Amino acid sequence: MKLHYLDWGNEDAPPLLLVHGNRDHCHNWDWVAQELRDQYHIIAPDFRGHGDSQWVYGSAYSHSEYIYDLAQLIHQQNLAPLHIIAHSLGGGVALRYAGIYPENIKKMIVIEGTGGPPAMYNKQPVHERMRQWVEDTRKMAGRLPKRYANLEESVRRMQEANTHLSAEQARHLTVHGSNQNEDGTYSWKFDNYTHVMSPYDMSQEQSRELWARIAAPILLVSGKESWFRHGEREDPTRLFKNARHVVVEQAGHWVQHDQLAEFLRLTNDFFAD
To answer: 172 lies in a domain?
Structure first.
């Protein structure tokens, strides 16, 4: 399986890994990378089944596989020790990686990545959970990629998903996140099977056991207007050795898009400490 990543050059600078969320792609970080490329050697991967990376036959999409993808990239490109900025699914994956290899992390910024797939919290009996996964996977097998009549229709769908996006941002993300089909329509690049996570992976308790192993400083970032609903969750900082939490005003789930200038200020201040 071939996995795609962007390398922004400047190889003599400290490495910085930018990790996207579920059904996103590496170009989500283009604006952040453009501002930080002179200070860091930036690498931004596409997870399996996302962006320009290959899809998986048999739909093996779980946090464990994503962790392996990160581990291999860091190992093969000799990036450790390194800084990481990660969002959503990417944040959850990066935090688990950091708990497995705490010696490889200098500092981390995680945007709304302390959640996890429903199976982490679901206490269903085994037979119910497996039946649900089989049925969800079966339904996905019959789901064809959504087709949009033209690029503009795809851009409108992108803006519906995040109303904070400017027209320029939405178009940029759509251009890099979609393919034109032979009939002229457009479809998203991600594999539909990424909607269906493995029924068994790490439990919430196991994930938190890994988080507790991370010695490096961590900055947790949330958007005040996000569906993540940080205010209804327990304080995440108590689950780490060295973490603090910042809530950004007028931002949703994609803080790095919604309040880019503020996010860059937080990033530069945190990494400079």
So the answer is: no
